[in-house]
């Protein structure tokens, strides 16, 4: 029987060919989810575009079952809309939804950042320190996909380190939409160096176990995101 192949993202944005049949099923779903989520966030699957499960399967090399499970996760996160009998829709940008999301995100993410600073293990703190360096590298180089990947890794690490399943559930509904919105508009404001630096400051505070500093750095990050949202989309009139 022919070996099925799939593509995997690499740190250099290149595709590595994998033997799908050798990948554990759970990991296969995660990989399919990560591939599609990044494609949506970085606009390779554009807002308003439609597709089918079969097309996603052909694009990624994964079978219909892991693709279907990945789609279910993305639908819960509002990154895909399932249209019965009609396929899948990548939802258009929604400014009013983004502003409501930011209002909610500030309260939940402050709790997560402070909790992570308080509860992170030594290994997790070392990981935060490494991510801070990656963010500062992105600030210097301006590599946007590199930043988006570091941001996703940072968000996941925060959720694990905070050890609060209720906050985790809320944040998982917001991270992908936030990254996509930023990626869509950031070039208008040349915002990458600032965003990367602010992320680095949160990561450094968590790595150092400084709870108040982590909360303050998170507030500064979200202040920037809100100002960015209003300035680039609403012309600072809201």
TrEMBL record:
GO molecular function, one term: DNA binding
SUPFAM superfamilies: GntR ligand-binding domain-like (SSF48008), Winged helix' DNA-binding domain (SSF46785)
Keywords assigned by UniProt, alphabetized: DNA-binding, Transcription, Transcription regulation
HTH gntR-type domain ranges (all copies): 26-93
PROSITE patterns registered for this protein in UniProt: HTH_GNTR
PANTHER family noted in UniProt: GNTR FAMILY REGULATORY PROTEIN, TRANSCRIPTIONAL REGULATOR, GNTR FAMILY
Protein name according to UniProt: HTH-type transcriptional repressor RspR
Organism in which the protein naturally occurs: Pandoraea nosoerga
């Amino acid at each position: 029987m022919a070996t099925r192949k799939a593509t995997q993202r690499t740190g250099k944005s290149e595709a590595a060919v994998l033997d799908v049949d050798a990948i554990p099923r759970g990991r296969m779903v995660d990989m399919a989810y990560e591939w599609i989520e990044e494609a949506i966030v970085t606009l390779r699957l554009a807002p308003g575009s439609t597709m089918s499960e079969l097309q996603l399967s052909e694009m990624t090399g994964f079978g219909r079952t892991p693709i279907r499970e990945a789609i279910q996760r993305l639908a819960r996160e509002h990154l895909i809309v399932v249209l019965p009998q009609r396929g899948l829709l990548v939802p258009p940008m929604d400014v009013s939804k983004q502003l409501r999301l930011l209002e909610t995100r500030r309260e939940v993410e402050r709790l997560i950042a402070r909790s992570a600073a308080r509860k992170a293990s030594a290994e997790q703190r070392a990981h935060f320190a490494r991510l801070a360096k990656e963010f500062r590298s992105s600030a210097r180089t301006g590599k946007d996909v590199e930043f988006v990947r570091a941001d996703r890794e940072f968000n996941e690490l925060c959720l694990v380190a905070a050890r609060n399943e209720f906050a985790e559930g809320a944040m998982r509904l917001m991270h992908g939409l936030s990254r996509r919105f930023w990626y869509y508009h950031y070039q208008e404001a040349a915002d990458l160096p600032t965003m990367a630096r602010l992320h680095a400051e949160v990561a450094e505070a968590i790595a150092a176990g400084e709870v108040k500093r982590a909360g303050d750095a998170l507030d500064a990050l979200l202040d920037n995101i809100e100002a960015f949202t209003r300035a680039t989309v609403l012309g600072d009139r809201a």
